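Notebook entry, cofactor series.
This is the third protein in the set we're modelling with a bound small molecule. For this one the ligand is zinc ion. I'm keeping the input format identical across the series so the outputs can be compared line by line later. Sequence and SMILES below, as received.
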Amino acid sequence: MQAALAEARAAAAHDDVPVGAVVVISGEIVSRAGNERELRSDPTAHAEVLALKSASQASGSWRLDGATLYVTLEPCPMCAGAALLARLERLVYGPQDPRAGAALSLYNIVQDPRLNHWVDITFGVLEEESRALLRSFFEPRRPEVPSYTETAAGTSRRPRGGVPKRP
Ligand SMILES: [Zn+2]
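Returned structure with ligand:
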């Protein structure tokens, strides 16, 4: 998560919202990326998508079995969707995002029994550091800084007995 935070700080340097992500496979960082939406003028250039893409390139497969994605903020619906499509094993993130979060807050795309994959979630990791970074980015730019929920850290894992059947 410290490596993801370093990517988030680097993103702010090119005026992108400071969010960073790294992908870890077998205990090793295989890719790292920061948000580059402004830098690339690309609405899909979120840190998570960029990190997942380069992890797939590095490992030679779109399937990232056993991989963990560390990200400094709860992923949006697009990134949660990308994590699901990559067949990630685990998602670890900092603060929850009540305005756009799609891995527990607004939606839980990565743990929907109607879809074909399940990603375990650990949240609230280095949450204070991530929120401080976001706050210092937004404060000079907006009169009202978005609030990223203060939550106790936690996990959301595959239920005992497996994922419920499709309704
Ligand atoms: Zn996203």
